[in-house]
Amino acid sequence: MALYFANSSEGMVPDALAGFARAHADLVVWEREHGFVRARHTSPARRVGLVSGGGSGHEPLHIGYVGAGMLDAACPGRIFASPHNRQIFEASRAVGREGGVLHLVKNYTGDRINFGIAAERLGRQGIPCARVLIDDDVASESDGVAAGRRGTGATVLVEKVLGAAADTGMGLRDLVALGEDLVERCRSLAVASAPHTAPTTGRPAFALSNGALEYGVGIHGERAEHTAAHRPLRDLVGEMTGTLARALRLGRGSSVIALANGLGGVTQLELYAVLGEAARLLDDRGVALERALVGDFVTALDMHGFSLSLLEVDGETLKWYDAPAQAPAWRR
Amino acid sequence: MALYFANSSEGMVPDALAGFARAHADLVVWEREHGFVRARHTSPARRVGLVSGGGSGHEPLHIGYVGAGMLDAACPGRIFASPHNRQIFEASRAVGREGGVLHLVKNYTGDRINFGIAAERLGRQGIPCARVLIDDDVASESDGVAAGRRGTGATVLVEKVLGAAADTGMGLRDLVALGEDLVERCRSLAVASAPHTAPTTGRPAFALSNGALEYGVGIHGERAEHTAAHRPLRDLVGEMTGTLARALRLGRGSSVIALANGLGGVTQLELYAVLGEAARLLDDRGVALERALVGDFVTALDMHGFSLSLLEVDGETLKWYDAPAQAPAWRR
């Protein structure tokens, strides 16, 4: 646990955005006045603008996925706080096209409210606007609260696939249907063995004894229902993979993309081992691992933990997943 | 600080390599018996095979840079330990071409010895072999010991540029000259505010009080000459950038590539802020920032720290830097 490298805790996000804009000036533009990042290059065939956003502290999500073949714009909020609806409204007006604008929203109350207000304002201006709500985290499924499942790792996959689909000229209604289908076919689960550092205090955001695991942690440090014991990776990933496979009813003949995602403080050695264990278990079940993503895609500041996501795919989804994109955190 | 997610500390590297090979089966092959990763696709124009390697725990270095346009092979050692000379010998035999093989070696005693023994064996088999020694870390410059400067962030840039140059059909002697020139034009400096976790004990690898900075830390946790106080990022990066600019004699009209590299436990928010501060200081000095790399490229397990590297470039170097490559950690 250590202090962040920063000028001040309030300066972390604006200073990072300035550096981000400078580092990736060939791919993105940071519209500082209106608070959104937009793609410098986009496909002329695209008829619907794709806009996402959410609290900062999850980088590269969402700003790293702005660019040709992915998002048209992303609105970063303060750390772990929703962007303001004005940011979303301005971004949507700037990148909306003849077919309107699609909002890709992680399922958190603040994000839902702010994207909702922006959508109402866009509607009053006659700009067609629809939403795909991303809620893939199985750990929050049994909460019994109205909020529903949290949105986590699926977001990256949805942003990639919908970006490629939008580039074919697909309309708003079909994009919504595709997006909702993707969300329904994707589930995630996260564990942490140490909390993230709170930016304002420089101290651990929650208490977790050494050797304990938060099994089902959220990307803002939402506590799990119960704390579990640290255990060999094979057993841990086995349990996680089994839970995801059951949730998606995967079986012999199913095909998936797997995402072994670092929450900020874990090493690539650990993440590749996670992928290896998951792959072995999918093999045992006769599930085809079509593609694997390993690295930091949706983080929780410097939390020492990882998430595992599985997306069930067909040939068309794979084709869109494989389509070239040029975004700061996704270049193929 | 927390236990690693692993089956065992000894299993961390082999388990990660198995997952790495599975995740990137389209790009690389893990030759388990001989202990090296080789590229699945390479340019037919290449006449010299490029081989690197070193201790594990620095991922994505080196295995992530194996692929078309970059390395032909990489030999991973155990964590923070040189690969065995047999691994290097076998990798070199496997990927050497009519023009021979070039070893890209970070300046550490173990690596020098093992690459050296492999080179002797290759020579006895009539395989032309030469070496570029990478020693960019200014913090180790004044050690007054025979070991010389350590090799760190420059390695990524050298592997990228030499990969593109090799793809033009450049011969061994010219590649060595280009590589030595690149190393001479690149300098790095690293700081940490918390140590990495030792895999065998699960405890901090060295003691550093809260609020203290190890200014000039090495990528294996080599201590700096002295501990400094934590300070605002602007001041810290200002001092680092000034030191690198003086070492490279940068001034008005110079052009550079900057690498803001995470050592494992820092966030992208922090790294982008580092890049932003460095860019501002280069602007002040009239130095053109031609390209920026921000992220985890050469890590030190989960160390909470970052390094800054500057490489002075000309138009030809930029062209090679920009050339497409398809490696797990470098796809453009």
UniProtKB/TrEMBL annotation, chains A, B:
Q: Which InterPro entries match?
A: DhaK_dom (IPR004006), Dihydroxyacetone_Kinase (IPR050861)
Keywords, comma-separated and alphabetical:
Kinase, Transferase
Instruction: List the GO cellular component terms.
Output: cytosol
- What lineage is on file? Bacteria, Bacillati, Actinomycetota, Actinomycetes, Kitasatosporales
- DhaK domain sequence ranges: 8-330
Q: Which GO terms describe its molecular function?
A: glycerone kinase activity
Task: Please provide the Gene Ontology terms (biological process) for this protein.
Answer: glycerol catabolic process
Q: Which PANTHER family match?
A: TRIOKINASE/FMN CYCLASE (PTHR28629), TRIOKINASE_FMN CYCLASE (PTHR28629:SF4)
Species whose genome carries this gene: Streptomyces kasugaensis
Q: Name one Pfam family in it.
A: Dak1
Name of the protein described by the UniProt record: Dihydroxyacetone kinase subunit DhaK
PROSITE patterns named among the record's database cross-references: DHAK
